[in-house]
Amino acid sequence: MSSKASSSRGGESIVADCGRNTSTCGYCKSPTSSSISHGLWTERLTVHDYQGLLDRGWRRSGCYLYKPEMAKTCCPSYTIRLRASDFVPSKEQQRVRRRLERFLDGELDLKPRERAEDQDVEVSEPVRKLLGSGKREQNNEVEPVMKDLSELIDNAVERCIHSGEFPSNIQIPKSSVKKVLSAKRKKLAEGSEELLYTSNIAFPIVAAIKQTQTSQKGEGSNSAETVSEKLLSEMNKVGEFPGLVIKVCKGHINFFSATQVTSSERDQGESLPSATTTTKSSSNSLQVRKKKLEIHLKRSSFDPEEYELYKRYQLRVHNDEPESISKTSYKRFLVDTPLIEVLPSSDGDDDDENVPPCGFGSYHQQYRVDGRLIAVGVIDILPKCLSSKYLFWDPDLASLSLGNYSALQEIDWVKQNQAHCSALEYYYLGYYIHSCNKMRYKAAYRPSELLCPLRYQWVPFEVAKPLLDKKPYSVLSDFTKASETLEMNNSDEDTDSDSSRNGIDIANILISLNGARLRYKDLLRIINMAVRKQLEPMFISYRKVVGAELSERMVYELQ
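^ thats the sequence. predicted structure below, dont judge the formating
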C-alpha cells in the first residue's frame, strides 16, 4: 500500500484472527452453545475498512469484531440498512415525534412520583387538575385526559410489538378511551362508582392478530382478556398516571380513581403525591412552559454521567444484576473503539476525501432536556453511513419511545450531512433477526434492505421477507437467477466447497511479521513446510470471512 493511499485512509488496519466462537444465544435462549460466529480483534481499524466489513456482515463490540456463521448459527443475523433520502416515516413513527414535541411544549409533564422508589412518572396537566379538583365530568377537562390515556395505551401496544408480544406486521387502529357516565356507573357492580374511563382496544387487536396469523397456540393466547393483561403489564412498567388505578375486566381496560376512597377523605381535601405542590397558578404556568432539547455529538470517551445513566438503564430495562455492571465492562462495550478518526481538511484541499464537519469515527450522541441527560446513542460515522451501535436512555422516560426518536434523529442527521459528504447516504440499524420477534421492529423503518449472506448483495426487505418466512437462513439473492449467475462468477462464496486451498487465493494476504509488512507469497520463501501447513488453514478461513479486497488491505497480525 502506498504512503499516500495509507494516509488518505487514516492509517492502516491491524487485525488478529480469533477464529470461531460458540456461545449460548441471547435471542432464542438455547441452553446449548448454538450461537456461532467468527471473531477478529483489533485496536486499529480505518473507517474505510470497517465500512467494508459492515458490508460483509460484520459488527463491532468495542474493539472486538464478529460475524455470525449464517448457515450454522441458531439465529441468523442479517445486516439491515436504509437509504436515508428514501425513508418514509410511518404513522407510528410520526406519532413518536409528536409525543416528544408535546413533552417539550409542556403539554406532557414528567414529575417524580413519591412513595414509589423515586421513579419519574408522566402526568399531564389536565389529569393533575382533574384529579386534584375532584371534578370528573366537565368536558373541557375530561377530553385532554382521554387523549392522554389513549396515548398511554398506544405506547403500551407499541412496546408489546417491539418486545414480540404482538406480531410486528399487524395493523392496529388507534385506541379509543371513553368516559363512563354516572348513570351508567349506577348500573354496574358495587364499587364501580369510581370507574372513570374504559377502552375496548383489546378486541380489535385480537381480530388483527387472527387475520395475520392463522395458526395460533390456542384461543386463550389471543383472547381479549390476555391482550388486555399484556397491555396492563406494559403500562405498569412505565408507572404513568398515579392518580388512577388501571384494571382489566372481561377484555376491557378500565381506569378508576385512586384518590377517592371514602367521602371523608374527599372532604378533607387529600391530594395526590405528585400534585402536592401544584397550585392553580403554577399549573397554568406549566401549561405554557417550554423545555429545551439539545443533541450533542461528542467523540467516544468515558463520561461519568453517561455511565450512571447506563447503569440505571441496564438495571431497570434489561434487569441486569448489579454485580455484572462495571466501568471496565462498560468501557469495553461502548467506549473503546478501534476506529481511527478522520477529520475534515482545514485547508479545503480538493484531493481530500469528502468528510462531514464532525469527521469520521466513533461518537456518543447525547440527548439533553433542560440540561438533563436523558439518552445516549453510541454510533459510528463512516464513509457511506451512520451505523447505530447502541442506545441507552432514562427508564423514567420510557413512554417517550426514545429508541424510536433517536433512530429518526439519526436518519435526519444522514440526510443533512449528505451535503458535505455525498457518499454518506445510508443508515445501518445493526442486525435483523427474522426469527426473533423483538428484532422485527427494525423492518418498520422503510424502505429497508438486507444483506445477502452469501453474495453480499443488498436485497429489498419486501423481497427477502417471503424467503425468511420459510426458513431463518436463506440466500436472499436467490430471488433472481440472473443475479445469481452473475455473482457466482464474481464473488467469494462462504461454502464448505471453498475449504480447500484451490478454492481460495491467499497469496496476497497482507501480513505483519516482526514489524515488517509482507504478502503471504513472500512469506513462503522464509518458512518451512511444517509452518506452511499450520498457517494455510488459518489464512484460508480469514480470507473467506473478510473477502479478497480486505484481506489484501488490512494487516493480518501473526500471534
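DSSP finds 17 helices and 21 strands in the chain.
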